[in-house]
Amino acid sequence: MKLSPSLIPALISTAWAAAIPDTSDTSVAAFEDNHYDAVVVGGGPSGLAALSGLARVRRKVLLIDSGVYRNAPTRHMHDVLGFDGVTPAYFRWAARKQIEFYDTIQMTNGTVVSITAPDATINSNTTTPYFTVTTAFDGGSDATRNISARRIILGTGLRDLLSDTPGIRQNFGEGLYWCPWCDGHEHADQPFGVIGPLSSVPSNVREVSTLNKDIIVFVNGTDTEDNRKALDTASPGWQSLLQYRNITIENRTISAVVRLRDGSTANNGTNATAAALPSVEEYDLFRVDFEEGPSIERAAFILSIANEQASWVGRDMGVALYGEGRMYTDSNLLTNIKGVYAIGDANLDNSTNVPHAMYTGKRAAVNCHLDLAKEEASKDIYIEQLNSSSSGSTKRSVPPTPLDPRALWNVVNGDLDDVLFAGEYDQ
Ligand SMILES: *[C@@H]1O[C@H](CO)[C@@H](O)[C@H](O)[C@H]1NC(C)=O
Ligand SMILES: *[C@@H]1O[C@H](CO)[C@@H](O)[C@H](O)[C@H]1NC(C)=O
Ligand SMILES: *[C@@H]1O[C@H](CO)[C@@H](O)[C@H](O)[C@H]1NC(C)=O
Ligand SMILES: *[C@@H]1O[C@H](CO)[C@@H](O)[C@H](O)[C@H]1NC(C)=O
Ligand SMILES: *[C@@H]1O[C@H](CO)[C@@H](O)[C@H](O)[C@H]1NC(C)=O
Ligand SMILES: *[C@@H]1O[C@H](CO)[C@@H](O)[C@H](O)[C@H]1NC(C)=O
Ligand SMILES: *[C@@H]1O[C@H](CO)[C@@H](O)[C@H](O)[C@H]1NC(C)=O
Ligand SMILES: *[C@@H]1O[C@H](CO)[C@@H](O)[C@H](O)[C@H]1NC(C)=O
Ligand SMILES: *[C@@H]1O[C@H](CO)[C@@H](O)[C@H](O)[C@H]1NC(C)=O
Ligand SMILES: *[C@@H]1O[C@H](CO)[C@@H](O)[C@H](O)[C@H]1NC(C)=O
């Protein structure tokens, strides 16, 4: 038997009634009594997108947001349809305001400190398995509290590891950036610098090739024989590219990057703070000082910087890291741990931007919802079979044998065009 779409809401709401206690009290104090379909860790674009997707199908979801955001240093967000040129805080505010409309979700400040997987010995055919999410509220001054969730969505993001060279951290995001799509257009045609190891030069030069012509690359002492040889292999023709573009290599060790002008106000009369336009020129100006010799002035820079997971809760609960320390996921954004998804910058596809974060949040929400729906249907069917066998019902004598996974899949999976169609069993 296939379930018709009209049966699905009834099926889901029955399961809810059993699994989800009353959550009408939305205060933090109520959390300890609450069980959630999912907890979303992180309130950046990926977490908000996951929350939105789950809110739309009336999942009971809690978003826990520490208030630490990778894009906090930047002036404006760009290349996000409908939000080009707004501040990151405005984007989050607008998203939260929309999602708030849905009454099955909650959002709270808090920092998740650890997550414990469900007890593997419980019988998940009859008892709902819950992750335990240990969370610090109120900036960590409060004792931690435990929240339970059937699924975990990690939108915990990355942290940029900025150099200690004076002026880099202090000015990051305001004339010093790493993503041309996010910040480059505001500095187009200005005297420009690339700061990074020699190995990063060709890709950075290509990325800004349509934005800046007057470019100096500051390789900070990495222009060595060995690095040149490595680059000849990794990026053949890189020297011709630099010659053709009239780009000079500055190899001296940087001692400081000093701000001479602030582009958030120096924008020739256009109020960039107001963000009334998608893109407003920002006339920052910096002086690069070296350990020896004269300084050089530049208006803006692209930087090459390393990064790492902003939170270790995924790794610490056993999520495998992959490549450059990104959380492993399959194409459904599921990690190696059943029931745990990783979305946004923190996962393994090396794509780190807001549209990608929103896409992965949305995709995880769809898969999470369908996975929960399967679990609910399977439990209902299993219990119904036990009931009918123990009551000796003659009306419906469904055999008490547990369904094998394939049979169960055939029961709960929709037809090709159904909303619950989730692909063939052997996909
Ligand atoms: C919640 O996080 C925001 C930053 O996003 C912060 O300004 C605010 O103080 C936090 N509130 C609490 C109660 O921790
Ligand atoms: C929270 O859960 C963890 C992991 O299951 C447990 O070790 C801890 O004692 C719990 N804390 C509270 C306050 O219940
Ligand atoms: C420049 O090189 C020095 C010495 O190796 C290093 O300490 C510093 O972090 C580097 N600065 C930048 C901006 O890469
Ligand atoms: C660049 O600087 C490094 C470190 O000071 C030095 O070893 C290297 O020889 C320099 N390269 C050139 C081409 O001068
Ligand atoms: C490089 O400089 C030369 C000489 O000034 C100039 O003719 C040429 O157009 C420049 N090339 C680029 C790509 O700007
Ligand atoms: C805008 O102001 C900057 C800094 O004062 C100046 O360098 C630039 O030429 C001005 N641009 C225009 C279009 O007026
Ligand atoms: C620019 O706009 C912001 C936000 O509307 C406002 O707070 C600020 O005073 C304005 N600055 C100037 C120089 O007009
Ligand atoms: C991401 O980057 C890492 C390290 O550079 C690489 O090993 C991995 O294959 C990349 N992943 C994808 C999906 O391209
Ligand atoms: C199974 O039986 C129990 C106890 O009689 C009852 O509460 C429950 O609703 C039944 N469940 C189903 C799915 O029929
Ligand atoms: C749960 O149900 C599945 C499929 O019906 C069955 O294979 C499994 O043995 C059951 N597990 C327990 C602990 O009863």
UniProtKB/TrEMBL annotation:
<protein>
    <recommendedName>
        <fullName>FAD/NAD(P)-binding domain-containing protein</fullName>
    </recommendedName>
</protein>
<keyword id="KW-0560">Oxidoreductase</keyword>
<dbReference type="GO" id="GO:0016491">
    <property type="term" value="F:oxidoreductase activity"/>
</dbReference>
<comment type="similarity">
    <text>Belongs to the class-II pyridine nucleotide-disulfide oxidoreductase family.</text>
</comment>
<dbReference type="Pfam" id="PF07992">
    <property type="entry name" value="Pyr_redox_2"/>
</dbReference>
<dbReference type="InterPro" id="IPR050097">
    <property type="entry name" value="Ferredoxin-NADP_redctase_2"/>
</dbReference>
<keyword id="KW-0285">Flavoprotein</keyword>
<dbReference type="GO" id="GO:0097237">
    <property type="term" value="P:cellular response to toxic substance"/>
</dbReference>
<dbReference type="InterPro" id="IPR036188">
    <property type="entry name" value="FAD/NAD-bd_sf"/>
</dbReference>
<feature type="domain" description="FAD/NAD(P)-binding">
    <location>
        <begin position="36"/>
        <end position="196"/>
    </location>
</feature>
<dbReference type="InterPro" id="IPR023753">
    <property type="entry name" value="FAD/NAD-binding_dom"/>
</dbReference>
<feature type="signal peptide">
    <location>
        <begin position="1"/>
        <end position="17"/>
    </location>
</feature>
<keyword id="KW-0732">Signal</keyword>
